[in-house]
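Example record for the data management plan.
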Amino acid sequence: MILKNFNKNFFTGLIIILSIFLFDRFSKIYVIYLNKKTYTSELFQSKYLNISLIWNEGIAFGLFSFEQSDLYNFLTIIISILILIIFIMIIK
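Corresponding structural encoding:
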């Protein structure tokens, strides 16, 4: 079985990574929801926390920020293939 190759640390790390990913997704969805509800980009203003909604038009840090959806799809496929290869290497 494939699962016996994994140890407790692998599953702990996987749970931590998935938790961070899900928290990131839900927080972004919540901020976009609040933006649509209040019609302003300044969402939270307090002494310790200020959240402003800013759209990144490119991939990481605005890289490739132009209107080429085919390039984004190609990069997504390449990244997905690399992740799959790394995952197969981890299993072996």
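Summary line stored alongside the record: Helices lie at 8-38, 69-91.
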